[in-house]
UniProtKB/TrEMBL annotation:
GO terms for cellular component: endoplasmic reticulum membrane; ER to Golgi transport vesicle membrane; Golgi apparatus; late endosome membrane; SNARE complex. It is found in: Prevacuolar compartment membrane. It comes from Populus euphratica. Residues 68-95 form a coiled coil. Residues 1-92 form the Vesicle transport v-SNARE N-terminal domain. PANTHER family: VESICLE TRANSPORT V-SNARE 12 (PTHR21230:SF66), VESICLE TRANSPORT V-SNARE PROTEIN VTI1-RELATED (PTHR21230). Belongs to the VTI1 family. It is a single-pass type IV membrane protein. The gene is LOC105116980. This is Vesicle transport v-SNARE 12-like isoform X3. Keywords: Coiled coil, Membrane, Protein transport, Transmembrane, Transmembrane helix, Transport. The chain crosses the membrane at residues 199-220. It holds the Pfam family V-SNARE_C.
Amino acid sequence: MSEVFEGYERQYCELSANLSRKCNSTSLLPDGGEKNAKVNEIKSGLDDCDVLIRKMDLEARSLQPNVKAMLLAKLREYKSDLNKLKREFKRITSGDVNQASRVELLEAGMADVHSVSADQRERMTMSVERLNQSGDRIKESRRTMLETEELGVSILEDLHQQRQTLLHAHNKLHGVDDAIDKSKKVLTSMLRRMTRNKWIVGSVIAALVVAIIFIILFKISHH
């Protein structure tokens, strides 16, 4: 929750309650200097309320969507409250309030001054409580988001380590493949040499056998 918005909200609630009391008391005054002074004070206060409403509106629209929607809904209530104060101020300054109305307002208005003030305080208290609850929910959401982010980073690190392991294993397998290829070439060369040597030995043996046969035949023929 925005602390800036909360500050504007507290100022508005206090100012609104004060203006409501002034409107009730001013409507009972006779025309004259004192009433004119009160009217000027109320007009200045209404202008300040307008400024606070605009500030709250700008601050609410700069926040995240979920917080923004909640604050704008609350802001509509404050705008409605301010419009009621403006209508009451217009009624006071219109000059159409007769003496009977003043008496009636004296009887009803004075009795309601304290209740209006109590209502304003209760409304402000409830608003602050709602703001605190919303702030707690936002803090919890931020904590969950940070935990999720940390978990994501941990998973990415694990995946990176697994990738490095796989690449290392792949390099080892590639080295084994090279060694196997070299071994195959050596064995092939050895087999070729063995085959060639086999033919040489066979030829030597055959030549010896033929020589022995000739020697035997030669000896037999001379006897």
